[in-house]
Amino acid sequence: MLDVVELTRALVRFNTVNPPGNEQACAAFVAATLEAAGFDTAAYDSGAGRTTVVARLDGALVTPALCFTGHLDTVPIGAEAWRRDPFAGEIDAGAVHGRGASDMKGGVAALVVAAAHLARSPQRPSLVLAFTAGEETGCEGAFHLVRTTDALNDVGAILVAEPTANYPMVGHRGALWLELRVRGKSAHGSTPREGVSAIYRAANGLARLERLELSGSDPLLGASSLNVGTISGGSSVNVVPDLVTLGIDVRTLPEQASDDVRRRLAGAFEGDVEMETMLEVPGVLTPTDDPWVQLAFEVAAPLVGETPHARATAFFTDASALRQANGAPTVILGPGSPEMAHRPDESCSIARLEAAVEAYVELGRRWAEEIAPHARLGLRRSAAC
Ligand SMILES: [Zn+2]
């Protein structure tokens, strides 16, 4: 019998710090665990050692599949000292400790244990489990999966086990990260009028960027936002600078066209600028009245001590990529604490891990019984429209 605490500890002991990631051994371990529970598995590499694993088990009825998903990579340890070994998976004070315990190996473990339970249930749904590489650096494994396979095409609903302290979330903004290069013309520092300063050009543009209102606001997701996170330029104090490079992070709404955002950013600068996209993940928002969201609200209510209302996560998730295969309604619900993510001394509450397993099993059973048969009709209907 799989135990969610022991499985979380086992996953934490794999060092999948990204960069470089190196999810292969962790993915093989997850695949072997799911094969023992009756799943068929397949591995997809988005780079050397960058393995995403997909596990599948058909249900009793031919209906859309339910997708459970999480990422196997973690962010780095960081410069601050940890009080415990980040890769030991120690248990103390009712929590599993280590890098990734909350974000999100605890969530992955809870999904695997719940899937193994569901595999033994006659009322189980068709299940597709996707455990991805490279999420922390831009959903690389998830994008690789949807671009190169049809593994998720028959998915009718998605559950992402990112850390929400078991609160069901209905979406998040997307992200568009750009490198913007402003060119000038180099000259000797003693004769600046013979050159064109890229620094002055950039400074003038930046002043306009600070006042730029990106259109779009959503009552749930909030407004789109823009942050100039990095700047570098110039080569020497006595040379007119011919290049400034800016790193810009735009958080977008699901309907927002990224080409329009690029055009507006470029328009803040006089003359031409070069722009390179470093990351583009679309926003995600599932309507609150969707049956999958309503079921998640019902199942999670006793876990969070209130009737949940529609909320969004601050971070983006693999759902940005995975929904491109199927457009499926998505709920983000995981046992980790969002405030533990990306911090030193990360841990995950054991009580929340166990509660998440129960919630996932109930969600799986009730999806199969109450939603999946109608979801199939729903997909047909919308396809005909
Ligand atoms: Zn995460």
Overview of the molecule:
There is one protein chain. This protein is an alpha+beta fold and 385 residues long. The protein folds into two domains: 4-172 and 283-384, Aminopeptidase (3-Layer(aba) Sandwich); 174-280, Alpha-Beta Plaits. It has nine helices and 17 strands. Strands 1-2-6-3-7-16 form a six-stranded mixed sheet, sandwiched between helices. It has a four-stranded antiparallel sheet with strand order 12-13-9-14. It is elongated, with a radius of gyration of 23 Å. The protein binds zinc ion. Zinc ion binds at residues 71, 103-104, 135, 162.
Radius of gyration: 23 Å
Task: Assign the CATH superfamily of the largest domain.
Answer: Zn peptidases
What are the segments in which pLDDT stays under 50 over at least 5 consecutive residues? 377-385
For the largest sheet, list the strands in their spatial order.
1-2-6-3-7-16
Number of domains: 2
Structural class of the helix and strand makeup?
alpha+beta
What is the string of SSEs from the N terminus onward? Answer: HHEEEEEHEHEEEHEEEEHEEHHEEH
Number of strands: 17
Q: Can you tell me the overall shape?
A: elongated
What's the CATH architecture name of the largest domain?
3-Layer(aba) Sandwich
Topology (SSEs and partners):
Blueprint lengths: L3 H9 L11 H13 L3 E6 L5 E7 L7 E7 L19 E2 L2 E3 L3 H19 L7 E6 L7 H9 L6 E6 L10 E2 L1 E10 L14 H14 L5 E2 L3 E2 L1 E9 L9 E10 L5 H10 L6 E8 L2 E2 L5 H14 L14 H4 L7 E3 L14 E3 H35 L1
Parallel strand pairs: 3-6, 3-7, 7-16
Antiparallel strand pairs: 1-2, 2-6, 4-5, 5-17, 8-15, 9-13, 9-14, 10-11, 12-13
Helix pairs in contact: 1-3, 3-9, 7-9
The structure holds zinc ion.
Zinc ion (ZN) binds next to helix 3.
